Amino acid sequence: MRLLVVDDEPIIRSGLKKMVLDYPHGLESADTAGNGLEALEKIMLSEPDILMTDIRMPRMDGLELCKRVHELYPHILKVVVSGYSDFDYAQKCLEYGVKHYLLKPVTPPDLHEVLDKLLHSGTPGFIPASRYLGWIERLEEAVWSLQQDEIRRLTEEWREHGAQLSVQQLKELLGDVLSQLQRRFTDKSRPLHRGIALPLEGHTRPEVFTELEERLKNCIADLLAQRRGNFKDPMEEAKTYIDTHLSLEITLKEVADMVGITPTYFSALFKKITNETFISYRIHRRMEKARELLAVPHMRTVDIAAEVGYDDYPHFTKTFKKIYGQSPSEYRASLGIK
Description:
- The protein is of the alpha/beta class and 338 residues long.
- Helices cover 58% and strands 7% of the residues.
- Strands 2-1-3-4-5 form a five-stranded parallel beta sheet, sandwiched between helices.
C-alpha cells in the first residue's frame, strides 16, 4: 500500500514519514507534501491508498483537502493529524470519510496502531486502491470490447479478493464499481442504462455476484444495441483507421482514444492480435501501400513517399529497401517501369 504524508512543518513531515517507513508490516511507498494543494496534485498523478494530513496548512488546509479527496477519490483512506486545539475542527472531517485521528505529538506506537486498524479493518478500503482502480480499468476495457470471458475471469478474481468483506461492504464496493463504470461510459458519450448503477439488493455473497454478472451482461447488451447489433472489433477499427491515415503522423494514443481503450492496454492488445507493435504495423502498411503506388507509371516516387507519410525521401527509400531488399527505383525497374 502507498501512503502520502501532508504537513507544512518539514521536521514533522519527515518524522511522520520515518515512522511510516519503520512500520513492521511494511508499506509499498511513502511520499510527502507540504500543503493540501501540493498533496492534491500528487494524488492526481499517483493515487495513494492512505492519506495522512495535518489540519492547519497554507494554500489549502487539511479539511478542504479531505473534502476534495472524499469527492474525487472516496476509496482513499484518510487519517487526520491534529493538536488538541484543532480537535473540534478536525471532527468536521467525519463527513468526509475520516475515521482515524492522531493527536500531536505523534509517537511510533500510536501511528503503527492506526496503520494496523487500517490494514485489518475489513472495510472496502482495505483493498489497495491501486488494485481496485486497476480492476475497474480492466473491466471497462473488457466490457467495451465485449470480452465476456475476461469479464467472467475478473469477476472470479474479485470473489477471492472480496472474501474478507461482509455482504454489505461487498455491495457498497461493487456498487461503486458499477457507478464508476457508468460514469466512464458516459464520458465516452456511450452512456449505459441508468439501472446499472442502482444499489445492489442481494442478501448473500452468491446473490450479490449473480446480480453483478447480470448487470454486466446488460452493459454488453446496451453496447450491442448502440452499435445496432453489428459489433465492430476495436482492433479492426484501429487497423482501418491506421490504414486510411497512412500519410499522417497519427499517434498510438490517438488511435487508442478513437477506439475507447487506454493506450497501455491498446498497445498490449494490438501486439497480441497482430503480432506487431503499433509502429511496426504502420511501417509495413505504408510500405505495402507504397509498393502498390509504385506500380502506377505516372506517379513520381517522391510523391509516393509523401502519400505514405514520408517527407524525408532518403528515409523512405532506406525503409523500403530494408523491407523488400531493393530500392523503390529498383522495384519499379523490375516491373518494367522507368
